[in-house]
Amino acid sequence: MTNSTVQSNQLDTGVSVSNIYQLDGKVPISKAIPFGLQHVLAMFVANITPIIIVAQATGLSGEETARLIQCAMLIAGIGSIIQLYPVWKIGSRLPIVMGISFTFVSVFITIGVKYGYNAIVGAVLVGGLIEGFLGLFAKYWRGLITPIVSATVVTAIGFSLLNVGAHSFGGGNGSADFGSASNLALGTITLLVCLLFTIFAKQYFKQLAVLAGLVVGYIVAICMGKVDFSAVLNSGVISLPEFLPFKPEFNINAIVSVVLIFLVSATETIGDTSALSETALDREPTENEISGSVACDGFVSAVSSLFGCLPITSFSQNVGLVAMTKVVNRFTILMGAIIMVIAGLFPFFGNLLATLPEPVLGGCTLIMFGSIVVSGLHMVAKCGYNQRNLLIVALSLSVGIGFTQVPDIFIIFPEILRSVFAENCVAVVFIMAIVLNLILPKDME
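The structure assignment produced for this chain is given below.
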């Protein structure tokens, strides 16, 4: 896409995107920081939630959990920086934001309860290295992930996140006042601010609709007494992550389970990379971008395990944010990555961001997650609505989403397979799409 084409392109909202907001444009730092902060706020709660869930299930202390949350922000920031500005062949050079993966939560709970948190750390170290090397040699297996397979997986990712947005809108999983009038009102106010800002804001400010919603929603939440600042007031000044706080244990059952999930994570990363390229850059990702993206996913996850933390992956909600704003500039995302690193080094900053109420986040993410579904459908349209493609998409989504809503259907399978597939629709959709793409005749029409 040429610069002149980019400059003349119009967003769906009717505002043109300046050249400076393209991949390597020079954005003033005063404008780059709000865009970067918007990305951090969009993923912050989702980034630390897997840590909290797994830590509680495996019996970690409050102090250990707090250290892991801090480490999660630091690792997410470092991973995002490497995606933006690659180290050797590791990184995609695309505006991909990394964070702690939800995909592993169910299998980690199973492993943690049976073998302990140290077995999780060992499995992540091995699985991350395997995914990293697979990423470096992606050209040898990339052919399996055809455009229609990627489109199907992206669509599944979007659908899998819709209930995440809905749960946040209601107050968050397990909250005592889930679905209360105050939570629904707070989520609705945030959503309305995002919509009104998108409709009425002009030029540069139009792309900050999500940040506007988060700020207004946060202020309203403070007035409603829904923000607890106690953790902020009691936080220290600076704290460095501890190397090997948990000694890795290498349990073969844990490793096999986690490696399978790493393959799913690689698929999600490919899907996110494809969705970002299609929606924001109007092209398919290159082989080097796919390879670097997956390699970063794996190797940084392995590094994460050395600090006791969980694997990272590309964050679909941030792909949705890029698709919504059309701002793909790497420098703006770098500001967000730096903010995450700062949050990982300064507990006060991280604890302040952690006070963001779930309904505020839910009010913003509804649009973003829906944008991922639309992106997937747009990718399907570009592949063509022939009988073969429609059968791959229809059957993959039906089995993947349908079966995982009835997890007891997997009851006859070994536990290791149930832990991978029973509640992970993206994994099932991926397998179905790959198999169908391989066995269906090319000349079905």
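Interim note for the steering committee: The two ends are 33 Å apart (CA to CA). The mean pLDDT is 85.
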